[in-house]
Write a structure and sequence with these properties.
single chain, 253 residues, alpha/beta, Rossmann fold, six-stranded mixed sheet, four-stranded antiparallel sheet, 8 helices, 10 strands, binds adenosine-5'-diphosphate, binds magnesium ion
Length: 253
């Protein structure tokens, strides 16, 4: 077996549902096994509510599973959090990573500031990461509302890159963008990964976008992984009916 960077074993996440006088519990994630190797992109596709974001949060250690194991470099993730900068996230809404009241450069540098990196090095690193995502270094002085949607998402990718992460979660990173901008961002993610070699979990309800950036795909349906495939194989009709439905809906068949 190849070395795993992030692995989930038989993971279950149980949530409460309903008002307190009629509370019930349900499993948002059930029996999930996942392995992401160093440098690899795993795509996780499924409709809204299927449990994708919950899995992404587990991979980052932002929440703990009700049962099962989440490991980073083979160690329980809670322990691995000491090296927190090795994990990063790009979310659908850049507002989550770019504070509207802070200059872009300040937001991008935030993880470095917390890690105690000095101001001069922070400025240098922010310029370097802005350049990596094809943004002008002087954008660091602007505020999020002064940028276009695509520029804001590039800036949040720069922030994700700032600690040279081994693993990046991309949770619906292009879903809020115009279609013309989506392709640029997807291509940029591919280029960055080829250059920098981070592993990624790419979450989307868009099957075609996921297939474009991921080498392997896991298909989620109501909390379970119902199918897995290599992206290259998904030009042909999949055996699983739900995967085939996604292929048809995205025009791949
Ligand atoms: N903190 C929470 N408490 C209760 N239910 C939640 C919570 N987070 C998500 N859910 C529910 O769990 C299910 C899976 O959610 P999520 O992981 O966000 O799916 P996806 O990202 O695929 O849309 C949904 O039914 C959602 O409403
Ligand atoms: Mg989600």
């Amino acid at each position: 077996m190849s070395e795993a960077l992030v692995s989930l074993r038989d993971v279950r996440v149980r949530y409460n549902r309903g008002p307190f006088w009629a509370r019930s519990q349900f499993d948002a994630v059930r029996g999930v096994d996942l392995v992401i190797a160093p440098g690899e992109t795993l795509g996780l596709v499924g409709e809204s509510g299927s449990g994708k974001t919950t899995i992404g949060r587990l991979c980052l250690g932002l929440q703990q599973p009700t049962s099962g194991e989440v490991r980073f470099h083979g160690a329980p993730l809670a322990q691995a959090m000491a090296g927190r900068r090795r994990l990063a996230a790009v979310l659908q809404n850049p507002r989550m990573s770019l504070n509207p009241r802070l200059r872009i450069g300040t937001s991008i540098a935030e993880p470095l500031r917390i890690a105690g990196v000095d101001a001069a090095s922070r400025v240098r690193k922010v310029s370097e990461k802005l350049e990596r995502v094809s943004l002008q270094p002087d954008l660091a002085r602007r505020y999020p509302h002064e940028l276009s949607g695509g520029q804001r998402q590039r800036a949040s990718i720069a922030r994700a890159l700032i600690g040279d992460p081994e693993f990046i979660l991309f949770d619906e990173p292009v879903s809020a963008l115009d279609v013309s901008i989506q392709a640029q961002i997807l291509n940029m993610i591919l280029d960055l990964q080829a250059d920098l070699g981070f592993a990624a979990l790419f979450i989307s309800h868009d099957f075609a976008a996921t297939r474009y950036v991921a080498q392997k795909i896991a298909v989620m349906l109501r909390g379970e992984i119902v199918d897995r495939a290599d992206s290259a194989a998904l030009f042909a009709p999949a055996a699983h009916p739900y995967t085939r439905q996604l292929q048809q809906a995205s025009g791949l068949l």
